Amino acid sequence: MTPLHPAPLRLGILGCANIAKQFARDVNGSSQVSIQAVASRDLAKAQAFAKVFHIPRAHGSYDALLADPALDALYIPLPNSLHAEWAIRAMQAGKHVLCEKPLALNLAEVMHMFQVARQCGVMLLEAYPYWFQPQTRDLLACLSHDKIGEVRSMQASFGFTVGNTDTNIRMKPDLGGGALLDAGSYPLSLIRLVMGCAPEGVMAHANWASTGVDINLMATLFYADGRRAQMSCAMDTANHRRATIVGSQGTVETEYLNHTSDSQTHAWGYLPSQLRVRQGIANSVPFEEIRSASGSGFRFAAEAFAKVLREQDMPAIDRAAAASHDIAATLDAIQASAKTGQAVRLIH
Predict the structure, then answer these.
(1) For the purposes of burial, counting CB atoms within 10 Å of the CB of 141, is it exposed (0-12), middle (13-18) or buried (19 or more)?
(2) Ranges of CATH 3.40.50.720 domains, the chain
(3) Exactly one of 95, 101, 172, 339 is catalytic; which is it?
(4) What is the pLDDT of residue 131?
(5) What confidence score (pLDDT) does residue 229 get?
(6) How far, CA to CA in Å, does 214 sit from each of 169, 231, 282?
(7) pLDDT exceeds cutoff 90 at 338
(8) Residues of CATH 3.30.360.10 domain(s) within the chain?
(9) Catalytic: 101?
(10) For residue 331, what pLDDT is reported?
């Protein structure tokens, strides 16, 4: 693998959707990552985006961004259905890739993406912003055996109300829409982080929108060692994001937010994210509030990606790749279970 130029990481953004705007806004000012180019299929749109976020170059096609020789890596915030295609094309062009979640529509695509990454000698990382929050590091510390004992079960949820249902890509099956892929990938990724492996099987139930996507879904995950996890996701509820992790000797509760703030009056609407731990089995034992450093998950993710690239930290990439593989396999099984009404064993 060819060493990168000295920091900051020279990053391009493939697309100008709202999430790309939030990413550019939050990463601007980083000493470790410099957004050098943006692309749209509409040059005027790319130029307007570049002007707002002080990005040096705007390209009028995705291929032009891939061919930009002054970029080390690309951030891909495209619709779910386009992740695999453009991540693969970017990697074949010699670019490292930070790709929005879910990494792809299914396990077969995910496996192909990592195969291409290995063949091309580049790094591919799935971007769950909360993964890179200091709070997540503190959460993992709370799971140590001397704090809550052995993790026995957990529940994790994420839901919101989707707007503009006639035009929103989340309502379009051909674009990888639906509550499971868009929202459910978050609680599933946290379950994988906590449990440390994929489940043995799943059982899921969903309600379906008129467009054919799942509008809400719940699933139970069964592990070979007898542990259980439950997840729920929705696009027809009030916004909620919560997880409870239960050990033999304690409990952890968290909101695991993507973006966090120290106050209730953040300029971009970011809020404090709760993390608390009870070290004991009785309900009379008080919860201890854990305070973590706060900030944008987009910026934490971009800077973490820059760090692993700079240090060529393949073990870190391999750990993330294993998690992405397990998440994709679990998403496949949950989708199959929700459609058939039957329990489904995972295929790895």
Answers:
(1) exposed
(2) 9-127
(3) 101
(4) 97
(5) 98
(6) 13, 14, 39
(7) yes
(8) 131-297+328-345
(9) yes
(10) 98
Instruction: Give, to the nearest 10 degrees, the angle between helix 314-340 and helix 185-195.
Output: 120
pLDDT tens-digit series, residues 17-59: 999 999 999 999 999 999 999 999 999 999 999 999 999 999 9
- Sign of CA pseudo-dihedral 335, 338, 339, 342: positive
Q: What is the pLDDT of residues 168-183, one digit of tens each?
A: 999 999 989 999 999 9
Taking Cα atoms as reference points, which of 268, 193, 255, 263 lies closest to residue 23? Answer: 268
Give yes or no for a contact between 78 and 14, defined as CB atoms under 8 angstroms apart: yes
Does domain 9-127 fall into CATH 3.30.450.20?
A: no
What percent of the chain has pLDDT above 70?
98
Tell which residue, 51, 49, 47, has the closest CA to residue 77: 49
CB 321 within 8 A of CB 124: yes
Q: Which two tokens stand for residue 81?
A: 């259905």
C-alpha to C-alpha distance for 108 and 325, rounded to whole angstroms? 9
Domain 131-297+328-345 listed as CATH 3.30.360.10: yes
Tell me the C-alpha distance between 35 and 33, whole Å.
Answer: 7
Three-class SS state of 284: coil
